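TICKET: design request
STATUS: open
ATTACHED STRUCTURE:
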């Protein structure tokens, strides 16, 4: 996959993309990430990228002609142009999975008051990382790149890691424990020490359901349940705690 990020502040991306999983994915050529300075597409001695809004009001607006040239120079047949915007569809894991299947992403980061609306004709999709307003799209683009890159086959040490995670299958993930087995009187749940794979699987499924019920009940309303899940939910709701800490 290739990701081009259109930004006025390319230096912001240096550190996050040169660490950990993304850095390794880039080194292994599983993903190519380029930051492209929007200013390079501005004309004139001052390379002006923004201007006052028609109709008056506070703030500056990123110029249509500059953005159009920038997108035009990158866009190919298989490109998907995504504008990071507080007005976009809220990013969720299903969207990340869909976006991760693309061959080429062009992520457009706005700044100031935003962009000239006419550029939306060149944008395929608007994505938001939450109902709040950031000063620029750069942090949002980093979130998209991180979430997408880890789904590219081969990027995570074990591709199954991204299959047993929160939001996959519409539930939050079960809790994890590691050594020491007892610390400050707190013990690891017995079932996890039993070596009994089926019991561990059921315990995890139950905890997954229980956590989702407590932390994100909205997710439970969106999904369907098989018989096993219905039984586990019944146990959670009507049989009390029983080792489901
Ligand atoms: N005036 C715009 C509005 O009210 O909708 C907000 C502009 S914001 C200050 C500047 C830029 O930050 C936007 O163009 C967008 O690229 C980015 N941005 C801000 N909040 C965002 C969010 N929640 N998700 C994604 N991008 C965001």
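STATUS: resolved
RESOLUTION: sequence designed for all positions
ATTACHED SEQUENCE:
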């Amino acid at each position: 996959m290739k990701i081009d990020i259109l930004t006025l502040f390319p230096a912001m991306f240096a550190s996050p993309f040169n660490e950990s999983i993304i850095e390794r994915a880039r080194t292994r050529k599983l993903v190519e990430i380029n930051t492209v300075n929007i200013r390079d597409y501005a004309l004139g001695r001052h390379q002006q990228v923004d201007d006052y809004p028609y109709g008056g009001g506070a703030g500056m607006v990123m110029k249509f002609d500059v953005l159009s040239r920038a997108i035009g120079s990158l866009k190919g047949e298989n490109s998907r142009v995504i504008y990071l915007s507080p007005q976009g569809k809220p990013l969720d894991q299903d969207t990340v999975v869909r976006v991760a299947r693309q061959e080429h992403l062009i992520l457009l980061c706005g700044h100031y008051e935003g962009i000239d609306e006419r550029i939306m004709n060149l944008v395929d999709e608007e994505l938001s990382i939450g109902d709040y307003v950031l000063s620029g799209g750069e942090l949002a683009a980093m979130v998209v790149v991180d979430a997408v890159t880890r789904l590219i086959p081969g990027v995570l040490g074990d591709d199954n890691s991204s299959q047993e995670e929160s939001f996959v299958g519409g539930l939050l993930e079960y809790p994890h424990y590691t050594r020491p087995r007892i610390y400050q009187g707190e013990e690891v749940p017995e079932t996890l020490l039993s070596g009994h794979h089926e019991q561990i699987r059921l315990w995890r499924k139950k905890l997954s359901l229980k956590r989702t019920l407590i932390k994100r009940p909205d997710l439970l309303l969106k999904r369907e349940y098989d018989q096993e899940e219905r039984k586990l939910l019944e146990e959670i709701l009507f049989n009390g705690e029983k080792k489901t800490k």
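CLOSING REMARK: The chain has two domains: 2-149, 166-238. The first helix runs from residue 20 to 27.
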